[in-house]
Amino acid sequence: MGAIRMPRWSREQYEKMIATGIFPPGTRAELIDGEISSMTSQKRQHAAAIRAAEEALRVVFETGYDVQVQLPLALDPSSEPEPDLSVIQGSWRDYRDAHPSSAVLVIEIADTSLDYDRDCKGSLYARSRIQDYWIVNLTDRCVEVYRDPTPSTGAHCGWIYRTSQYYASGQNLAPLAVPSRSIAVDDLLP
């Protein structure tokens, strides 16, 4: 007996499901490489980290950028993730008719989702050529920074980040889009 093949969804099909109300109110889901993934409920520490990171990013990314919190990125025909934070070029007004298709920085806050955010989402963001991907690692109280996307046949979505760096409490890091502006790791952790 063979394995059960789950259907692969397109972003267009996924958005139609949302529009028709197929998901019950309050459902937290996202489309990752053709698969609809449910997102777990947020613990208080996770929510606090989102707020901390949002505040820090809004100070660094002023004019010409918008900081989005848990909003969709239309990355490709089979993926519409909702990262915890993303920084897009322009204003939210530029995206009234369609979700942004890229970001200059994507941040996921991780505790129980750490492996998923490193492997599955990291591979998706690399495939989408997101140049700057950060994971605020609540378990180890550090920020993992991933850069230099490159193809890799063994990766979940066929891509990985070639370089990774880890920043601990007391250290600062700078986003690629505004390298002259740094953020303290402590400002990203609750």
What's the arrangement of secondary structure elements?
Layout: H1 11-20, E1 29-32, E2 35-38, H2 44-60, E3 65-69, E4 85-89, E5 105-110, H3 114-127, E6 132-137, E7 142-151, E8 159-168, E9 172-173, E10 183-184, H4 185-188
Parallel strand pairs: 5-6
Antiparallel strand pairs: 1-2, 3-4, 4-5, 6-7, 7-8, 9-10
List keywords for this structure.
190 residues; tt1808, chain A; six-stranded mixed sheet; two-stranded antiparallel sheet; 24% helix
CATH class: Alpha Beta
State the share of residues found in helices, binned by percent: 10-25%
Oligomer designation: single chain
CATH superfamily: tt1808, chain A
Largest sheet: 6 strands, mixed
Count helical runs. Answer: 4
For the termini, the CA-CA separation is 49 Å
Number of strands: 10
Q: Strands across the major sheet, in which order? A: 3-4-5-6-7-8
| Sequence stretches where pLDDT stays below 50 over 5 or more residues | none
Account of the 3D structure:
This protein is an alpha+beta fold and 190 residues long. It has a single domain, classed as tt1808, chain A (Alpha-Beta Complex). It has four helices and ten strands. The strands form three sheets. It has a six-stranded mixed β-sheet, with helices on both faces. A two-stranded antiparallel ribbon has the order 1-2. Strands 9-10 form a two-stranded antiparallel sheet. Strand 7 (142-151) and strand 8 form a beta hairpin. The longest helix is centred in the N-terminal third of the chain and has 17 residues, at 44-60. It is globular and about 45 Å long. The termini are far apart.
